[in-house]
TrEMBL record:
This is Nucleoside diphosphate kinase. Major role in the synthesis of nucleoside triphosphates other than ATP. The ATP gamma phosphate is transferred to the NDP beta phosphate via a ping-pong mechanism, using a phosphorylated active-site intermediate. It catalyses: a ribonucleoside 5'-diphosphate + ATP = a ribonucleoside 5'-triphosphate + ADP; a 2'-deoxyribonucleoside 5'-diphosphate + ATP = a 2'-deoxyribonucleoside 5'-triphosphate + ADP. The gene is ndk. It comes from Flavobacterium rhizosphaerae. Residues 1-135 form the Nucleoside diphosphate kinase-like domain.
Amino acid sequence: TNRTFTMIKPDAVEKGHIGGILSMITEAGFRIVALKLTQLTVADAEAFYAVHKERPFYGELVSFMSRGPIVAAILEKDNAVEDFRTLIGATNPSDAAEGTIRKKYATSVGENAVHGSDSDENAAIEGAFHFAGREQF
Ligand code: ATP
């Protein structure tokens, strides 16, 4: 068993999709270890996406991710990182497979409803940023 980290991004929260997305996550066999409604500051979003700072969409990405509340969660399942990235689907919803969260809820390549960690190492870093040990069950 291992863990991944996810955010339901501001676009999906604004549109009322928290419940629908959490249902898809739990129906796919992930256990919720930690969960909260929170908001990234501009500085948080800049740091979170620092790997993309030379990309042309960086400014847009930072303002999008900090514009409203997100849901942060730690999820547990065997093969969590890879299986969760399969469940969310391709970055661009027009490439996302049927049955994926982004196919159902994403609007565009930028406003794509959910984040999923890309490695076990990043999952641990991202989860620890949002949740103290006593908030993880
Ligand atoms: P995430 O890291 O959010 O799970 P990902 O790994 O599928 O997404 P990345 O290529 O790491 O995608 O890009 C990170 C995020 O940057 C994307 O989820 C999306 O919100 C945004 N993004 C990526 N490409 C573009 C683009 N061409 N235009 C605008 N925003 C983009």
